[in-house]
Amino acid sequence: MDQTWIAQLPLSEISQIQPIAGGDVNLAYRVDTAKGPYFLLVQKGRAADFYAGEIAGLKALSAADVKAPRVIANGQIDGDAYLLLNYLMQGHRGSQAQLGRLVAKMHRYYSPNQKYGFSEAYQGASMTFENKWTDTWSELFVEQRMDQLRDALVDKHLWTNSALKKYEQVRSIIVDSLAQHKSKPSLLHGDFWGGNHMFLEDGQPALIDPSAFYGDREFDIGCSLVFGAYDQEFYSAYQEAYPMAAGYEKRLNFYSLYLLMIHLEKFGGMYASAVNNIMERIIAEP
């Protein structure tokens, strides 16, 4: 990194900055200082408020007493947005059951206004979700998320007319199913897959890189199934701590579909068959 840029960070006695893995949206660095390490995220060419959603999400996780990175500073340097967090030291192993109970604890923290949505929009590399407050979960999930993804996939020529017709069938099933399901606006991680948790040096679980909002908690669990990162110990502990309502097995497919559509929009046709397969599964299930 440019030394002039680094010098403008609100840190003193920086000894080293090294690139590290930080997801597919941001540049990420470990910043070593005399007072210890920090975690730095940078988004080129964006205003400081690019990170407003992540900051609000981290603060919500803290309010829910869920272990997560703590915000140190946020701003813009030479036209680039940055977010500075404390550095969580990773351990080698931890309990999936403890992680399941931590997620259940997060899901018992509810929207302060009893609505679905969030105070800040989600901003990703290619998509923005406004997170406007709604009275029902279906309005937020189907109208603000799924339909927007549908339009993006059509605009990018990633969906044929056949896929679009299949989506409309699935959409009708989702709307009907959610109308019969009693939701509560829980605090969600919002991007809960295997790369967005860690175990600390003492073995305790922590959640990282949230795309938080308030919604039906089955959203996080459905997303968690896509890449197979969590074992039965996780799901059993979650169910024991906060059981999901009858019929959840079918509804979880809705949220797995959502995450796969996100990946299709972001990474292209390599996810087309997975999206098609789960749509067919939803249609085929009674």
From TrEMBL:
The keyword Transferase applies. InterPro entries: Fructo-/Ketosamine-3-kinase, Kinase-like_dom_sf. GO terms for molecular function: kinase activity. Pfam families: Fructosamin_kin. Keywords: Kinase, Transferase. Belongs to the fructosamine kinase family. This is Ribulosamine erythrulosamine 3-kinase. It comes from Ligilactobacillus acidipiscis.
